């Protein structure tokens, strides 16, 4: 059976009304029945008692004078009372002195008077189907005998049954009535709620605009319906606004993407032309300087030849700058691939190349083994190349040098570092390290274009990481990065 | 001294002058035909336009091709050379300023025989031209040309 909680609200309301009225009726009928039956029994006892007293009074003489015939005559007067089934008069010893049995009882033999009465008493007992009442017969304040009357309770039983039947009929009729009434009334309450449910369902299913009927009642349910519709209207307005905002945002993203793509294309065209067109004049300057040197060198003095060498050196530097700038821009726009890269192997590889380039350098290399990271293998190579080349370069003035590659852990995220014991730098200028064309050393001290660390920073940023440095003049530098 | 002709496709007069100088420095005395844009280069090779009437079956030993050219750019010139029955086996060396990866890939994809980036340092350029001349004019055997 379904629990009350899960019943539809209209059934709940109907059930509520019906149960309330039925239980009220049941309690009322039960009380009525109880009191009525009690009254009836009291009446019956009183009537029988009265009869007993009258007969007792009339029979006292017959006991005293031992006249059972007259006593029997007196008893036979009870035949006018149809309910009295039997009666008996007992003498002082408790022996049956005279008796009467109604015609009906004689036929059915349903009762029998006790043959001997142990002691004359006043009292009554209800037995199966009848009431047995005994009454002392007193003469001049002396108990001379007793009378026992048995009265049928059949009429009484019929009456009780009748009452119960009537009560049931009333109950059925009133329940039917209350069902009819509640069916009509519950609709007033449940209908708006059911409509509300339907609206909510249609909104959640089809995201459809709810239509308020505008005919809400003025009770709490009506208020609920009204508030619900207001809420829906507001939600609709908000979702409309949200949709518009979203659309606008999408448009803006599209616009920005287009702009970005255009800018990227432009940048590509720009670097292409830089790569191609800016170098051409440099080639001319260098080429014709050398031509001049070769063809007219003998006409120039020492100063003139030195000047020409300077022109050529400057051209070379310019060419290197252009190459580095191009690399920097390539690092920014090249597509990122993400895969597992063996950083330790990469570092060893680069260090071997550096050592091969300058076999005379005494550099102790300490590389932590098995350091891997997710990233673009080409960009990570450029990153490590720049850091190691720097370390190699800035330890160049020391007879022996040490370069380390390792890792530390911060909140489970690895921090990689490249450490050297070279020239180092003043921490006061640490902020300038990663800017393009920023150099902390004079050109005569260490060569470089000042783009290497800018490239490093860009690669680290493209991997979503951070890069920073610590150093001290003449005590080396450490470059940290995360990926 | 040699009937081996070099076709130099170059629009920059400075680069032209320097290339010729580098060839001379290396004692490469082959005739050098200079085409100053893509159209001239194709006209020379196919005997059309200003080179109408030239025997197109006489191919240069090597073509030095710049990529950035007026009218028809170097990659397009290369594409047409490879498409043409007569010139599809012609040795073409791309000689350019560009180090862009895409140019390298496209150049080789279109069938360039070699790709050389012009160094800014003229001494290095002379060395590059020396090796180029040595290889393409002396060591390399070109595919025989079918005479029709």
Briefly, what is this?
The complex is a heterodimer of chains A (483) and B (148). With 483 residues, chain A is α+β, with helices and mostly antiparallel strands. Chain A is built from 9 helices and 12 strands.
Structure report:
The complex is a heterodimer of chains A (483) and B (148). Chain A has 483 residues and is an alpha+beta fold. Chain A has 3 domains: 167 residues, Beta-Lactamase (2-Layer Sandwich); 123 residues, Orthogonal Bundle (Helix Hairpins), CATH 1.10.287; 146 residues, Histidine kinase-like ATPase, C-terminal domain (Heat Shock Protein 90, 2-Layer Sandwich), CATH 3.30.565. Chain A is 57% helix and 17% strand. Chain A starts with 8 loop residues before the first helix and ends with a strand. The mean pLDDT of chain A is 85. Chain B is of the alpha/beta class. In chain B, strands 2-1-3-4-5 form a 5-stranded parallel sheet, with helices on both faces. In chain B, helix 1 packs across helix 5 and helix 2 packs parallel to helix 3. Classes of the chains: A alpha+beta (483), B alpha/beta (148). At the A-B interface, helix 5 and helix 6 of A face helix 1 and helix 5 of B.
């Amino acid at each position: 059976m379904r629990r009350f909680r899960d019943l539809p609200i209209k059934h709940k309301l109907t059930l509520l009304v019906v149960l309330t009225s039925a239980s009220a009726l049941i309690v009322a009928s039960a009380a009525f029945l109880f009191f009525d039956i009690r009254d009836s029994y009291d009446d019956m006892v009183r009537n029988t008692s009265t009869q007993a007293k009258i007969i007792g009074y009339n029979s006292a003489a017959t006991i005293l004078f031992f006249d059972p015939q007259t006593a029997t005559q007196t008893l036979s007067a009870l035949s006018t009372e149809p309910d009295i089934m039997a009666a008996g008069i007992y003498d002082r010893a408790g022996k049956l002195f005279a008796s009467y049995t109604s015609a009906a009882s004689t036929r059915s033999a349903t009762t029998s008077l006790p043959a001997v009465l142990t002691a004359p008493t006043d009292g009554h007992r209800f037995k199966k189907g009848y009431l047995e009442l005994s009454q002392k017969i007193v003469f001049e304040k002396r108990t001379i005998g007793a009378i026992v009357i048995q009265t049928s309770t059949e009429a009484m039983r019929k009456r009780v049954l009748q009452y119960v039947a009537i009560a049931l009929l009333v109950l059925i009729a009133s329940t039917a009535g209350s069902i009819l009434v509640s069916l009509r009334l519950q609709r007033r309450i449940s209908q708006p709620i059911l409509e509300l449910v339907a609206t909510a369902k249609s909104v959640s299913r089809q995201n459809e605009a709810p239509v308020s009927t505008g005919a809400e009642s003025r009770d709490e349910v009506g208020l609920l319906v009204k508030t619900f519709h207001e809420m829906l209207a507001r939600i609709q307005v908000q979702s409309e606004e949200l949709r518009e905002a979203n659309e606008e945002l999408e448009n803006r993203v599209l616009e920005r993407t287009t702009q970005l793509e255009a800018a990227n294309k432009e940048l590509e065209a720009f670097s292409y032309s830089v790569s191609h067109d800016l170098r051409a004049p440099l080639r001319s300057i260098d080429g014709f300087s050398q031509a001049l040197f070769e063809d007219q060198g003998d006409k120039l003095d020492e100063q003139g030849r030195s000047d020409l060498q300077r022109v050529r050196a400057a051209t070379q530097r310019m060419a290197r700058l252009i190459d580095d700038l191009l690399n920097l821009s390539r690092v920014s726009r090249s597509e990122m691939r993400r895969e597992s890269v063996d950083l330790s192997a990469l570092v060893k590889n680069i260090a071997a190349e550096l050592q091969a380039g300058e076999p005379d350098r005494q550099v102790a290399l300490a590389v932590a083994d098995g350091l891997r990271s997710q990233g673009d293998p080409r960009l990570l190579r450029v990153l490590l190349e720049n850091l190691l080349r720097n370390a190699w370069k800035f330890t160049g003035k020391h007879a022996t040098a040490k370069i380390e590659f390792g890792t530390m852990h911060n909140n489970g995220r690895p921090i990689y570092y490249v450490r050297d014991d070279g020239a180092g730098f003043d921490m006061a200028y640490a902020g300038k390290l990663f800017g393009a064309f920023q150099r902390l050393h004079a050109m005569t001290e260490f060569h470089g274009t000042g783009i290497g660390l800018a490239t490093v920073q860009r690669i680290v940023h493209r991997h979503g990481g951070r890069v920073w440095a610590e150093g001290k003049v003449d005590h080396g530098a450490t470059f940290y990065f995360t990926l | 001294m040699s009937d081996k002709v070099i076709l130099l496709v170059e629009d920059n007069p400075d680069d032209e002058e320097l290339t010729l100088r580098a060839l001379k420095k290396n004692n490469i005395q082959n005739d050098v035909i200079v085409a100053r844009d893509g159209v001239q280069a194709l006209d020379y090779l196919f005997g059309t336009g200003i080179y109408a009437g030239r025997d197109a079956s006489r191919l240069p030993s090597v073509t030095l091709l710049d990529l950035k050219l007026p009218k028809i750019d170097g990659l397009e010139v290369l594409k047409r050379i490879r498409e043409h029955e007569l010139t599809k086996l012609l040795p073409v060396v791309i000689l350019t300023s560009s180090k862009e990866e895409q140019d390298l890939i496209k150049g080789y994809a279109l069938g360039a025989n070699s790709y050389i980036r012009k160094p800014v340092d003229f001494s290095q350029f002379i060395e590059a031209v020396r090796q180029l001349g040595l290889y393409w004019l002396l060591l390399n055997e070109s595919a025989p040309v079918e005479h029709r």
